[in-house]
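[job 4471] stage=fold_predict status=RUNNING
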Amino acid sequence: MSYLDYPVLVQKISLLPDKPGSYQMKDKDGTIIYVGKAKSLVKRVKQYFTRPQQGKVMRMVMEIRDFDIIETNTEKEALLLEISLIHKYYPKYNIMLMDDRMYPYIALKKSGDPFLKISRNDKEKGYYYFGPFPNSSAAYKMIDLLNKIYPLRKCKTLPNKPCLYYHMGQCLAPCIRRIDPFEYESMVDEIKSFLNGKTQFLESRLKNQMKYYADNLEFERAAEFKQLLNTIESITSRQKIIFDDHIDRDVVGYSIREGYICVVFLLYRKGVLLGKNCYIEEIEDDLEDMLDNIIMQFYSKHEKPKELILPFNNSSKMLSEALDIKTLSPTRGKKKDLLAMALANAKQMLDQHFQTARLDDDVLKLLEELQDKLGLSKTPLDIELYDNSHIQGYDCVGAMVKYINGQKAPQLYRKYHIQQENKQDDLASMEEVLTRRFKRLKEEKQKYPDLIIVDGGFNQCAIALKVKEEVGVDIPIAGLAKNEKHETDSLINADTGEVIKLNRTSPLFFLLMRMQDEVHRYAITFHRSLRNKSTFKTLYDDIEGIGKKRREKLLELFPSLESLAFVNVDELSQIVPKEIAEQIIKKRDELNKEFKQ
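[job 4471] inference complete, writing structure tokens
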């Protein structure tokens, strides 16, 4: 059918202005399925209906029954509005970058007894920040190296006696004496210099110490310094300085093949190549608009550099103004070479995608298949899954994960502390979680999800239906049922009671399993984080002989389960009676056993 068969579309197209703005395409249900921006609304929107389309755009145009527009003064304003509306409505035909990964920094405490730690941002006051690093492993290796060389504070909570690091010469023991700030000053300066890439001074000092011990026939000590030098070489060799100006800059490259585009971001921080981010998507109608959109979404969730090198010139100025960073499209020199490297990476990633991905597993088509199997009135583009987690009723939690257009949306996940008394009752816990969620959706007049999936078969489905009726919401509900081997093999339509057998080799089955695994992972991770925080309240409070003062002392010295990992009865007996120490160790071992199960 043609758009000419829909009078509303014909009339609205004839009224479009020749001005910049954002347009929102809608399907027959009035759901926004695509948000775009245009320099000229009349030219851009009209193109969808008056020229041949294919692939993703063709599927979208076939669904359009209406559209709205919002005029803006400039194309830059239209771009900013487009990104805002995409994050608000999550249209199914828009690209949505769900990746919100943050690279780690090394933080060095400024005042008091300085120490090093990993930080996921550089906003907390009172620290010097260095990085970011490609991953936590690289940052921890750097911290481990510096902690071996410089006797900084190592313990998060100061003990009442020197620890092993003091006896190894790796700590000045602020736990037993006040350290003069001048004693730390030169160490802090050297660490700052080293983490800023100036390693020559430290390497020279370590070489002199190695030579000193070798000359005095203390070969074991000389070998220790040799090992430190080797570690420095190993770490710094992977951090080759590309630019001497030490400016943070990113390079964007892309490659196209068979109707797909791969966009690569090469991230340089302080002249060093930090890593890359890669996104592969089906090509939309306007390539430049698509690239603008991806770049804007990327920097809405990632740290912005001082300089952005782009493979195109047309919208460079607009992106510069919208992101408030310097942009350029070089035509020669080293920066042009970087564009070539970004392109090579994009091509390689796209080729790899075609070699490894199952391109016939179209997620939107799988969701349409799920719609057909459950007899839903609309495709479930917004799906919520629920699960509970606890150990013997302690720290019982509920969790909800959300999938938008078949993709994880971690920023929309929710955690629930179970409040009902019988925390071992999974059905009662699920009832509480769903009641709280449904009431909030209704009271705040939020958009209801297209489908809710519970894990636990008919019993969980019955609870979900009960809550749905009591709260008065209209949300389709399904359940994932397991067989006698505790393997998920069926889908339950809670509203009709129909059991739908799943083909365990089908793409839909694996999509549902990925979703199910994600909600399990999220619930268990939340539960374990609570256990780590509250274990010691449970552990210490129910042991006879531990009063307020002893409890405070124990929490000061052993605030986490990890801090008790290598403690023995004799060591604990220095602060509590031996029989109490034995009970603590017994409890510790029981909890560790539970966590491993």
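[job 4471] summary: The CA atoms of residues 352 and 474 lie 43 Å apart.
[job 4471] exit 0
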